[in-house]
Amino acid sequence: MPKVLISDALSPAAVQIFRDRGVDVDFQPNLGKDKDKLAATINGFDGLAIRSATKVTAKILEQAKSLKVIGRAGIGVDNVDIPAATARGIIVMNTPFGNSITTAEHAIALMFALAVAVAAIYGQVTVNDMVLARYTADAWRGRIFAVRYFLLFISAGCAIAMISLLHERGGFALVLAVDAAIAFAMFALTAALAVLVNAFERQHAARAAPVAAE
């Protein structure tokens, strides 16, 4: 039975996946923070599952006589001495799509925060109520806001979906090429839309000024 050492904090579901597949798991979530203790423990394990806290150095790999694979639960593998692992025939793997959903959700959340000026309001809300009222009026004025950000969200969502699909099915060069094309198209669309919307907003502001004065 293969033995896997988990030296960083992982969810119970991840640990259970190993056990359901007949893997003998030693779950020590705080072990990776102590390099000396990790070096003294790692011998005898076939696999090592880590996150970012564990630093797999050449010194640690010298003690890993039976180690065959290092699995990084995340994207980056900069905390693993890859040349030292390669020299010992140890495979270093990662999970490049593990954060794709949360990254997309975070991007959409930031766009919503930008749309309603969350950062600006947070910095000014304790000053006086008039500032907050001004931001609220600007944010939800008419249908111009809806048109601008609806198109922005749609274009950003399509770009995120396309990039995710290409990462799964395409090569790295293809991903870079399409990323550049999407970025250029989004820039052109956003610039054109900004010019158009700003013109509408200036016209709207000119009409609203006499009403506000009353």
Question: Strands, helices and their partners?
Answer:
Blueprint: E1 3-6, H1 12-20, E2 24-27, H2 35-41, E3 47-50, H3 58-63, E4 69-72, H4 82-87, E5 91-93, H5 100-115, H6 118-124, H7 129-139, H8 144-169, H9 172-213
Helix pairs in contact: 5-8, 8-9
Summary keywords:
alpha/beta; 2 domains; elongated; 9% strand; 214 residues
Distance between the amino and carboxyl termini: 81 Å
Helix content: 55-70%
Shape: elongated
Major sheet, described briefly? Answer: 5 strands, parallel
The domain count comes to 2
Could you please describe the fold and organization of this structure?
Helices cover 61% and strands 9% of the residues. The protein is elongated. The longest helix is centred in the last third of the chain and has 42 residues, at 172-213. The protein folds into two domains: 3-93, Rossmann fold (3-Layer(aba) Sandwich); 100-213. With 214 residues, it is α/β, with parallel strands linked by helices. Mean pLDDT is 76; it is low at 137-142. Strands 2-1-3-4-5 form a five-stranded parallel β-sheet.
